[in-house]
Amino acid sequence: MNFISTLENAFEQNRNVENAFAMSQYMRNKFSFFGIRTTKRRELFKEIWKQNQQEVHHHSVQIAQTLFNKPEREFHYCAIEILIKEKKKAYSDTDIDWIEKLILQHSWWDSVDTIAKYILGDYLQQFPNETENVITRFSSQESIWLHRSLILFQLGYKQKTNADLLFWLCLKYANSSEFFIQKAIGWALREYAKTNPEAVLIFVNSNKLKPLSTKEALKNSGSLKIM
Q1: Can you tell me the distance from the alpha carbon of 119 to that of 122, in angstroms, rounded to the nearest whole number?
Q2: Which of 23, 112, 199, 216 gives the lowest tally of CB atoms within 10 Å of its CB?
Q3: Residue 227 pLDDT
Q4: Cβ neighbours of residue 33 closer than 8 Å, sequence gap 6 or more
């Protein structure tokens, strides 16, 4: 594919070994990097995307999966950005298969959180009747990243948030000892508190959450305090 080969060449030409080392360290050496800063990476990416619009549009999932199979983290970010734009309001119900695969591949907070909010979240807004199936599917597996995605997928829903579902999911994982789960619970509650602070305060006061979850949930609550 011309888009991928052109992108590979551009990233290789802009490789920065010093930046790559620092980026990899920040990500606990879990990924390789070209060392291209976000602004420059997006500048290169968007120009090449513009030059290959039709190819990307018609083969978005295939291109994204190919990029995600590569070792460098910058390719993964590009794959996610392609899917966010190209698949918005254009999902099929079977797309949950590759969405799950994407969450599980090269999993870390930076990719999983974006996929959960902008891809899984959009998918379930388009197919709300699939929500129960997805919860059953994801929760039956041991991956903390699938569980984190369930907690976070409503992050952008605001007034459309299903509060009962959010609170139920928070309680489902409330006793988890995993840092990323405790943090996700707090983040999801803190985000919903921007829409309904009273409901979040009542929920936090009425249930025993891990200290980290409680702290994160009430971080920006102003005068709202745990009872």
Answers
A1: 5
A2: 199
A3: 47
A4: 19, 20, 23, 24, 27, 72, 73, 74
